[in-house]
Amino acid sequence: MVKKVHPKLEEPVEAENWTEGIEQPLALMEQIDEDFAAIAELANHSVISARQFSREQLIQLCRLSAKFETQQSFGQFPLTGKILISAFYEPSTRTRLSFESVWHRLGGDIISITDPSTTGIAKGESLKDVAEMMNHYGDVVVLRDSNERAIYEMLEALRIPIINAGNGTDEHPTQALADMYAIFKWRPELMSNEVSDDKKITIGIIGNPGRMRTVRSLLLFLSRISQAIKEVVIICNTTESFSQDQREELEAEGLNIRVSRELEPELPDIDVVYINAIAWVGNTYEEHGIEYKLSKSSPLKKGAIILHPLARGEELSTDLDDTEHNWYFAQARGAVFARMALMSSLVRF
Amino acid sequence: MVKKVHPKLEEPVEAENWTEGIEQPLALMEQIDEDFAAIAELANHSVISARQFSREQLIQLCRLSAKFETQQSFGQFPLTGKILISAFYEPSTRTRLSFESVWHRLGGDIISITDPSTTGIAKGESLKDVAEMMNHYGDVVVLRDSNERAIYEMLEALRIPIINAGNGTDEHPTQALADMYAIFKWRPELMSNEVSDDKKITIGIIGNPGRMRTVRSLLLFLSRISQAIKEVVIICNTTESFSQDQREELEAEGLNIRVSRELEPELPDIDVVYINAIAWVGNTYEEHGIEYKLSKSSPLKKGAIILHPLARGEELSTDLDDTEHNWYFAQARGAVFARMALMSSLVRF
Amino acid sequence: MVKKVHPKLEEPVEAENWTEGIEQPLALMEQIDEDFAAIAELANHSVISARQFSREQLIQLCRLSAKFETQQSFGQFPLTGKILISAFYEPSTRTRLSFESVWHRLGGDIISITDPSTTGIAKGESLKDVAEMMNHYGDVVVLRDSNERAIYEMLEALRIPIINAGNGTDEHPTQALADMYAIFKWRPELMSNEVSDDKKITIGIIGNPGRMRTVRSLLLFLSRISQAIKEVVIICNTTESFSQDQREELEAEGLNIRVSRELEPELPDIDVVYINAIAWVGNTYEEHGIEYKLSKSSPLKKGAIILHPLARGEELSTDLDDTEHNWYFAQARGAVFARMALMSSLVRF
User: Chain A contacts of C15, Cβ < 8 Å?
Assistant: First the structure.
């Protein structure tokens, strides 16, 4: 009884057709002119907080992301000879692989620190000494650390840029950049200086805005395009949701924010649903809003898109994967080009 | 009292003379014509089971391996810009380094997942989601996993090729390819369509054919050249040796199989002795046939060769290392070229 | 209340001006002529002990280090296509990143073994078998192992060079090379065949010369330039300081050695202060001379330099960082170029 070869092995894998979905990044690029000066300002800057970016820099980075996405191949390798120090002190696969893949695609090399206990165990070695060491070995550092202040301490002695890949519960700016890139590909007109009322969007964020670094950075970026947003609805059922001054800062930038305890009544009016139930805190995770679930049977608005930084759990049902609402796969795919745009802008050639 | 420098340090290391042993791969290449079509069929296919390969593809892959082995250097780097996702969830050094070395030699880059617990810990993240992520970050995946079904589940969502580096107790096709390459270098005439009776070989396999993935894959490849094999003798002393339908499948392909509990009485008639006492199962290992040992005093047939995937234990004595029977070092060396042949065939440039 | 962006993020990072400090390596290069033959002898040699180097090879390696330090960029990548097997079995970040950074800067690729338990776990696999495996996968091995003899055992079967990155308490030759490079940049005249008495230096080494591999290798290198050294003062308060024959071997090479239990009375006469309180022994560390501390208030000689392999603890106060005595940062920076010089000399192109 000859066992058959698994049917999927009999055909070549269905490679991604690089032209599929190319109309979206092309449309984004046509929406605004290239402004290279905004990008040039970023050279050799560290990236820790979404606050660092002006609206112009944000939309130009997204335009540059689209430029990368529309290229069939990278004939040039701008990061040839450049070394990334990859320091992920919290468990991560997705974000780490994302950064490493991007760095390689652009021609660079990588050295890694995976176990922080091997770094300067000697009693009293300071983060400044670790930073001083990194100055000699690489051109850019990417750091994920459950200690929120670590990246700021290292700034004191670093002479190479450092990118925040998640510092405690504080921020995760590159993930938020990927989120914004997805939003702008979906509706390029949101990048305009002025957006008519009928085109403004309502964004629903399911989660705890004070405790989730992905949400914190995203809200800051959304405040840069407050003229395009009718309302941000935070779906959260804890009493304390925002951290101190967080809501005030966002409202001062022009964001209209409302908090609701209920998801289903809000959904029919929401254009962009952002959901993420897991917040990493050190080596464990907190669950936020785990009782809020999205599935095909949820009362989603027609044409609404769902964003999720992934990995997902039960809060986002797989039965949504084949619907028009699924923009979380496009978001993951676009994250690569968003990081390409950022990394290539940071490194001075 | 001046300490002397270790004598071995006073001379340069004896570099491998690349022309040494070159007559064997050259003879293999002369035995059959190149058939590029057979190789071209492999482009963009995943490799999970030895069943996927026809006899023609098997011998052409070995011919391509010989072509790599006879090249002094690789002036070209066909995998430039290509990324391998190296996912070894079971302990491995040998196989992992083998794949990584090959990928670098051909000009590619590598990103690694070494601790599966950092991948999608969020409750319920499916292997399909992990596969979807990998689609964005690399061009080929190589996976070793004690979960036999994992690689098949990932196939559902992967749009890039995946190579099985060992899935539970099921298969290890690239190791078996290296084994066949060693056999064909030793006796290129075994690659012919017809082999006269006096040239057919007897292969002795010491181990449990049902539980050892290296043996399972090897037996499948041997069944592709059943016309060149007089008999396969399985040396095994457990009652249950084959898994369900395993023996029937091989015999249906024309292999003559016999099982024996005794090693020494069989050895004088065996041309190729395959031995491997350790089968990894998760983070531990099972020992199979540990009571069967080979050493210089074993009644080996004159001209017989010994294959062992290494690492070895006491089942294979080091006193055989300097004898004509030692083909396990050549097998290890050839494994690099066998993987080069396979990897370069899979990736569509 | 809009939170401000951290001030350090508002400006680009202060990139290292590559011309800063360039006069020192330039002066070193002018001190002696290039003698390429001395370097050529090193091709394909393993590096385990500082004893392997003659005085001429030592100073030529430092001259080559200076050559690397004065290059603005590495237009060529001499290690293109070459693979380094990075095997760090003891915890390390600094030394490992140093080697990996250097190898990448010169264009090479790296494969790593980080967990020795995954290497040849099969009972009885010998280090010779591990070495045999490495012959197939790479061009150079770098090894750090708490087992002092491991590197010598592997020499038996290796056909590629191996570099000792620390073997138990025995030696750490590349660190000592970096130390010598710092000393020669500070005072190039010490490289001369003859050094007048008023120019000879006094070196103070705080630590246990028998138990600290960095010190052991450094003393051997210092014995190569004994004509430039007035005295080596070992600051150590244990009864047993030197290992057997260690002191005799150094004195036979012409080093004047004295041991003192007190630090402060010695400092005013010391030109080079070497301090390192931590000696790694396996997965833990021993502390040596932890009661000896250096700070701004120590009675340091004017113009004296402090060397420390880093990471540091409380034995070296940060208040010295901004003083003229701080040569430990320059030492760390120069270690990169010292390893470039060594690695590029070892690999036969």
Answer: 44, 159-160, 348
